[in-house]
Structure formats: C-alpha cells, structure tokens
Amino acid sequence: MVEDLTLKICAPCQGGIPPLEVGEAKKLQAQTPGWELKEGVHHIFRRFEFNNFQESLYFVNKVGELAEKEGHHPDVEFGWGYAGIKIFTHKINGLHENDFILAAKINEL
Predict the structure, then answer these.
(1) Which end of the chain is more exposed for a tag (fewer CB within 10 A), N or C?
(2) Pairwise CA distance, residues 54 & 34, whole Å
(3) Number of domains in the chain
(4) What is the pLDDT of residues 48-106, one digit of tens each?
(5) Is residue 42 part of a domain?
(6) What pLDDT, in 10s, does the model give residues 12-27?
(7) Is the C-alpha dihedral spanning 47, 49, 54, 59 positive or negative?
C-alpha cells in the first residue's frame, strides 16, 4: 500500500545521502500527476496555466506559503497566465522524497 504523500511532511535534509535513483523517483512521480522528471532524475518540473496574471500571482503566493510551512523551497517562475515550478533538494543536488511531498501538496492547491 502506498502512503499518501500529502499526509507526510517535509523532513529537513542535512545532506550526506545520495539522491533518489531512477526507479525510486519514478515510483514517487506516479503519485504526483503532471510533474515531469528532468535532467535524468535531477529535478521535477510542472507548468501550471491560468487565465491571467492575477491568477498566476495568487497561485505563486499560495505555493510560497506552503513552501514556508514545509520548510522546502522550490524555484518558481511566473508571468501572465502561467507558473513554472522546479523542485529538487539542493543539499544533495538531486531528488529526495521531500520533493515529491511538496509536489503532491502543490497539486492540491
């Protein structure tokens, strides 16, 4: 049985561990619809579409609030009608379960 990622919280990563391997990353990706593995399994990315700048800004602000709550901060780009979110764990320069937890919670926004 797969545990719902949205029920987990991001645990601080102190580094010193290897990033996820391809198989592990793909299993977690299956639980985060819309997110793509990029640069092998270095990071995940998703582009969200909106009707205007105000909706994009509102979404980005909600992502920022969530990121602060989780203590895990994605790279965010946005403009009129879109927001792009890139997530990876800087301390290990790759993917960790935390990245998928945050992605799953962003999907709920």
Answers:
(1) N
(2) 22
(3) 1
(4) 999 999 999 999 999 999 999 999 999 999 999 999 999 999 999 999 999 999 999 99
(5) yes
(6) 777 788 999 999 999 9
(7) negative
Task: State the Cα–Cα distance between residues 102 and 92, nearest whole angstrom.
Answer: 16
Q: What is the spatial distance between Cα 9 and Cα 15, in angstroms, rounded to a whole number?
A: 17
CA distance 26 to 78: 26
Above 60 in pLDDT, residue 1?
A: no
In a domain, 12, yes or no: no
Helix axes 97-108 and 53-70, enclosed angle (nearest 10): 140
Domain membership of residue 78 as a residue range:
18-108
**Rounded CA separation 57/81 (Å):** 9
Domain membership flag for residue 91: yes
**Domain CATH for 36:** 3.30.1360.20
- The whole model's pTM is what? 0.93
